[in-house]
Design brief:
Blueprint: H1 14-26, H2 31-45, H3 59-70, H4 82-102
Length: 103
């Protein structure tokens, strides 16, 4: 590893720190070693190496996901939404090109 001359400071909950440090030490590492391993993995793989499979969607989220996947999704457009305004502009441009072609 190259020279370790950069420092990173961040805030976290004390209970999280205490619990995590216990686990880190049980593996025989120091927190500094683990953080350096984590940053090295991110730099080398260009990904954040986290396994979030323990996070499970609740019933409402599963139902919404199924609704989207089935194509039976109900949605409502809001007039002042910038995305809808851009959609209107795009539609106007397409219609203007159709009119020019027919002229």
């Amino acid at each position: 590893m190259s020279n370790l001359n950069a420092a990173i400071n961040f805030r976290t909950a004390d209970s999280l720190k205490v619990n995590a440090y216990k686990i880190i030490q049980s593996y025989g590492f120091t927190p500094s070693q683990v953080f350096n391993l984590f940053l090295t993995e991110i730099a080398n793989t260009k990904t954040v190496p986290l396994n979030l499979s323990y996070l499970k969607p609740n019933a409402e989220t599963l139902e919404a996901m199924e609704e989207v996947n089935s194509g039976n999704m109900e949605y409502h457009l809001v007039d002042d939404d910038p995305a809808n305004q851009m959609l209107d502009i795009a539609k106007d441009n397409v219609n203007a090109k159709k009119i020019k072609r027919n002229a």
